[in-house]
Amino acid sequence: MTLRLGEKGGGFTSCYNEGDTTGEWIKSRAITSLGGMAATEQVLGMEDIGNSKDMNQAFGIVGNMITSGCVFGFDYKSYEYDTSEDRKKKIEDLAGAMIQRYYKKAKEIIAKNREFFDRMMKAPVRSDNT
User: Fold this and answer.
1) Other Cβ atoms within 10 Å of 104 Cβ, number
2) DSSP assignment letter at 22
3) Radius of gyration from C-alpha coordinates of the chain
4) What is this structure's pTM?
5) Which residue from 27, 49, 65, 97 has the fewest beta carbons nearer than 10 Å?
6) Residues 64-80, buried b or exposed e (16+ Cβ, 10 A)?
């Protein structure tokens, strides 16, 4: 959910997990991190630079999937002693491509569930601290 008031905005995205640590769950976390940026584009028709914390989280998740988890193949496994520029470029190119794919998926999820999100935004806010 993203709220924009004038020039300022704020919001949250969340991904429910019941202890799953599979590659699909980790991908879901990356997609969720891109949700605020995608929602701003989908709902307000504005390109958004995205929250830096969200962007860092998405790139961190994807980077770990590539270099530590070998989700995209063993060729990308990264070791501290292997810091060649060619290897770095391959990893950065793959990370950028995966972020693009996950951003597209975030926009698809928002479009598919737009009616639900619109209803949720119109629902009254309830506070138990009254």
Assistant:
1) 13
2) S
3) 17
4) 0.72
5) 49
6) ebbbeeeebeeebebee
Q: How far apart (Å, rounded) are the C-alpha atoms in residues 113 and 42?
A: 12
| Token pair 């991908």: residue | 27
Confirm if 105 and 31 have CB atoms less than 8 A apart.
yes
Residue pLDDT, tens place only, 29-83:
889 888 888 888 877 777 766 677 888 889 888 988 888 887 777 777 776 666 6
Q: Are 107 and 43 in contact (CB under 8 A)?
A: no
* Distances from the Cα of 37 to the Cα of 12, 34, 40, 55, angstroms: 11, 6, 5, 9
The rounded percent of the chain whose pLDDT value lies above 90 is 12
- Are 98 and 62 in contact by the 8 Å Cβ rule? The answer is yes
Q: Quote the crossing angle between the two packed helices 114-122 and 85-112, to the nearest 10°.
A: 70
Pair 54, 125: CB distance under 8 Å: no
